[in-house]
Amino acid sequence: MWCLALLADAMLAAALPAALPAAALSPVTSAPEFPLALFWQFALAFVLRQLCLLLRDGLTQQSSRLLRADLRQQLLNRLAAQGPARQRFGSDGLLSTLLTEQIDALDGYISRYWPQLFQVIWTPLCIAIVVCWHSLLAGMLLLITAPLVPLFMILVGREASKASSEKLAELGRMGARLWQFLQGLSLLRRLNAIPQATAQLEHATERYRQSSLQVLRLAFLSTAVLELFASLAIALVALYLGLGLLGELPWAKGEVPVAFAPALFILLLAPEFYQPLRQLGADYHAKAQAEAAALALKPLWLLPSLPMQSLRADSPATERKSSASLPSEKTPLIQLQQIRLGTEAKPRLVIPQLQIRAGERLLLQGDSGSGKSSLLQLLAGFADFDGDYQFAGQQFAANNRPQLWSQLSYLTQTPELFAGTVAENLRMALPGATDTVLTAALQQVGLLAELGVATALNYHLGEAGQGLSGGQQQRLCLARLLLADRALWLLDEPFAELDQHTAAELAVLLARLSTGRTLLIASHQWQQLSFLDGALVLQQGQISGRQPLGEFG
After folding, report:
1. pTM of model > 0.90
2. Domain holding 434: CATH number?
3. In this structure, are 217 and 168 located in the same domain?
4. Pick from 193, 197, 217, 215: which is nearest to 205 by CA?
5. Interatomic CA distance for residues 529 and 363, integer angstroms
6. What is d(CA 216, CA 210) in angstroms, rounded to the nearest whole number?
7. Whole domain around residue 498: which residue ranges?
8. 314 vs 387: CA distance, rounded Å
């Protein structure tokens, strides 16, 4: 639709806007009557052209909104499939900047630059055909000088592209730094480190300001260069027409190759011929900015995606409980065969064979970097792997990740809590839960009395669970695990940020709540986990054996 609007605009720009002044001035050399009918034709053509431009702008802006919304949804889908592994692409602050600012940076390319590429072909072509009808030499002058504008646009635009990349990189770093500042604001206040953190933010802001000014300088330089060459080209056409009317052309002395009316018509059309090229040059910085944004978004785009239908709220794969029957105790809930994470030359985790029975509670023990977190991410469906993975007798593949997620709960050492009330955070696990159910879950984890029976559900949390201690945050996450009621619990260093006393209390609570469930927990504080059935020992990305818990020491 917008292509048709651009084509209509090109045809109207080629003939009608300049026809009225040329025809109105032609009576100076012929009849004294003003052609009133032509005036109304011109007015109609002018209105039609403005409507075409409005239609084009409306359609391209709508296309830009739809494309950016679809891209943002697809990238969110890809990040959701990564789970905690998304942190390898940057902090949440950096990812938020990528999904907001840098996707919006594509708007200029979609809504202005790309349609302008279409217009820069058809409008000058239509005008050149009309000009060649009156004067072949004038038309050739227009066609010969036209490539100079995009040529210098590209030369200047290379530096603009580099500057845009630097600007977006600075924006991402500033967003990540601001996110960290907001998360640690209470700690910075207690340490009296607000002035130092503020100085760092001001320094990052100054670097971003300088990178933005560099982009603006190059944009203004590009515009000045384009205006210069467009003006020189128009002056060249005007010189030819003027000398022709005076009969002073060296190869046609005393002759008038182009009459007054056609010459005026051509001269008035010359700016319209170069206008799309000039506008394309003005929009070229939008292309440079979009290229830099696309380069930053490329790693996220290359990630595997989930089928969109599997993410629908009414999809069977996303129900709170899976319709698949889970195996009984002493029956393998998880079976791994010839699993490899990472490249063949440098694998992060290699598992020839592993079976975990339903209801078995195991410790993942090993030094830092031995592969404990990689194994948990593999079992949770957040890691791409080679090999055979069966869960509850069903083959696991990338396209049925939501079905796997509906049967397990994953808890990291940094609780995923959000600004809002305790009830809002709990209902993330069970959206339709009543206040009675939520209160019972808080009672089970021992938070109800601490937060107050009457005010517990309405207790407001700040960003990243601010307002609760580390132990309270972990217990709130355990309450969510209870509400989700999944068969498999995967816990990655839940005691890492806790003191010894709080960790011991949480271990006792975990021993009681995990009864009857399959539990895998990665922790260095194994002395407090005597209730576990055993331990899987990992060394350098491989499982060296399964041992009773009492053999460590």
Report:
1. no
2. 3.40.50.300
3. yes
4. 197
5. 8
6. 10
7. 329-551
8. 31
Burial pattern 285-318, b for ≥16 Cβ within 10 A else e, equals bbbbbbbbbbebbeebeebeebeeebbeeeeebe
Pairing of strands 385-391, 332-342: antiparallel
Do 141 and 183 fall into the same domain?
yes
Nearest to residue 446, comparing CAs of 495, 497, 505? 505
Task: Write out the DSSP string of 134-182.
Answer: H-HHHHHHHHHHTTHHHHHHHHHHHHHHHHHHHHHHHHHHHHHHHHHHH
Res 24: pLDDT: 45
- Asked, for residue 404, whether it belongs to a domain, the answer is yes
> The tokens 């007015």 sit on which residue?
43
Q: Is residue 68, in this structure, part of any structural domain at all?
A: yes
DSSP state of 392: T
- Grouping H, G, I as helix, E, B as strand and the rest as coil, residue 420 is strand
Q: What is the mean pLDDT of residues 449-477?
A: 81
Nearest to 91, CA basis, from 154, 178, 32: 178
Task: Identify whether residues 261 and 337 lie together within a single domain.
Answer: no
User: Which of the four pLDDT bands, split at 50, 70 and 90, describes residue 309?
Assistant: very low
- Count of domains for the chain: 2
Residues 293, 353: one domain? Answer: no
Which tokens is 307 given?
């089928």
Residue 86 lies in a domain: no
Which tokens belong to 188?
A: 């910075």
Helical pair 114-134 and 136-145, crossing angle rounded to 10 deg: 150
Please say whether the beta carbons of 547 and 534 come within 8 A: yes
Q: Are residues 292 and 422 in the same domain?
A: no
pLDDT category at 416 given cuts 50, 70, 90 is confident
Q: Do 338 and 296 lie in a common domain?
A: no
Local structure of residue 357 (DSSP, 8 states) = E
Query: Are both 134 and 275 inside the same structural domain?
Result: yes
* 403 and 343 co-located in one domain: yes
Of 260, 284, 300, the last residue of a domain is: 300
